[in-house]
Amino acid sequence: MTGIPLDETAVTAPSPREGKPAAKKTSLGRDLIALTKPRIISLLLVTTAAPMYAAGSPSIGLVMLVMLGGYLMAGGANAVNMYLDRDIDDVMARTRLRPIPSGRMRPQQVLAFGVACAVAATWLLAYFVNVLTAALALAGFYFYVFIYTRWLKRSSPQNIVIGGAAGAFPPLVGWAAVTGSLDIVAITLFLIVFYWTPPHFWALALMKQVDYGRAGVPMAPLVWGERETMYQMFWYTIILLWLTVLPWWVGAFGLLYLASALVLGGLLLGGIVQMIRAARAGTPWSGPAWWVYKYSLLYLALLFVAMGVDRALAR
Amino acid sequence: MNTAVLDALFWIAVAACAVAQFFILRAVFAPEAPAPVGSPAEAGRAAGRLRRPSRPLEIAWAVLPAVGLALLFVWAWQLQHPSLTSPVIRSFTVPL
Fold first, then answer.
1. Interface contact A238-B20, CB threshold 8 A
2. Which of A293, A250, A278 is nearest to B77 (CA)?
């Protein structure tokens, strides 16, 4: 389980070069926590915990163990990501105050911390939960570090699309922790997060083009252009909407979930249409783009909560 | 709910996803548009910071999720219509 492309959401402290206050002196403990990107991991934990309740009736102890293992694995991946991206973090305004570019931590320390977190998470999940859960979480870690950060992030506008797979591992982890196996519902949840990722991150990328251009990260708006990126967001959301219906169609969830999925998805699609309309009319589209970015976070959290609630009420 | 209605919904979903996937793939096959003058893309390309992505890889990355999506729909259909389903697919789980 990782924080995949979610590093892009790390709208951290403002840049000193933008005339905003410089970083405060922080303790080592605070820096170590910052390396794990706790705000970002909270969404990953929702997409881990909700499938656990959708898959069965886990004990609080099991949920806590999986949350801890998930946090360590995602936090470790985020720390290794900061190690690998230390050169561009110094170039991008929103990442310049992270522990490495600001000089508060040495790169080797960050790498060691990230690897230690991943090792601890693997042991915890394999020993106290099950091997499949540990393997899936570790697969997410490797996918994030090697496929996304190391390979695709700086070489392809599909970085977020394929890299999104790493962020889609948490539902598999949660499901496997309760059932010890994977089935069509688990795979559908994986694909829901996978197809949610591009519209979410491209909304941010549309607004941070200068940063990405400066850092040489070929995000979709820089390669395909703004308008095409917005259309792509629309098409990915169409697929996402129908994918969220599929678990109901196979009988995994009831009408409460279906209604939630349709309403939440409809709002997301509406936001994207509004952004496209603004762009086509030549009016500012950054307002709707921000809305899409922020709402998409809420969307995913509420969608997964709806799954858990739907199943809990059905029992 | 009526099976016929459910089946109709399924095929509407398949059609909608096929259309969306077509437009997603079309963007990958389309020639790269020149970056507008003064845009961050133009600045990045001029400074040599933005590398041109590998075309075959771009196509492969775009096709891969489409194949996954198609397989998921096939799996879902076969699960809901067991009489048409092979025992292998019906029993597909990843045992611990």
1. yes
2. A250
- Picking from B16, B61, B62, the nearest residue to A238 by CB comes out as B16
Question: Nearest 5 degrees, angle CA B92-CA A49-CA A264?
Answer: 90
pLDDT at position B96: 41
Pair A141, A2: CB distance under 8 Å: yes
pLDDT in tens, A56-65: 999 999 999 9
Reduced 3-state DSSP string for chain A: CCCCCHHHHCCCCCCHHHCCCCCCCCCHHHHHHHHCCHHHHHHHHHHHHHHHHHHCCCCHHHHHHHHHHHHHHHHHHHHHHHHHCHHHHCCCHHHCCCCCCCCCCCHHHHHHHHHHHHHHHHHHHHHHCCHHHHHHHHHHHHHHHHHHHHHHCCCCCCHHHHHHHHHCHHHHHHHHHHHCCCCHHHHHHHHHHHHHHHHHHHHHHHHCHHHHHHHCCCCHHHHCCHHHHHHHHHHHHHHHHHHHHHHHHCCCCCHHHHHHHHHHHHHHHHHHHHHHHHHHCCCCCHHHHHHHHHHHHHHHHHHHHHHHHHHHHHC
Compute the distance between CA of residue B83 and CA of residue A235 in angstroms, rounded to an integer.
Answer: 34
Nearest chain B residue to A164 by CA distance is B65
pLDDT value, residue B36: 66
Interchain pair A225, B75: CB under 8 A? no
How many CB pairs (< 8 A) connect A and B? 134
Q: What is the pLDDT of residue A19?
A: 41
In this predicted complex, what is the ipTM?
0.84
CA A221 to chain CA mean position, Å: 19
**pLDDT (tens digit per residue) in A182-223:** 999 999 999 999 999 999 999 999 999 888 888 888 899 988
Taking the model in full, what pTM does it have? 0.88
Residue for token digits 């994207």?
A: A272
Nearest-by-CA chain A residue for B3: A249
Residue identified by tokens 């970015």 is: A293
CA distance B66 to chain A (A): 10
List of chain A residues with pLDDT < 70 = 1-25
For residue A24, what pLDDT is reported? 55
- Mutate which of A148, A159, A239 to test chain B, going by most B C-beta atoms within 10 A? A239
Tell whether B88 is within 8 A of chain A (Cβ). Answer: no
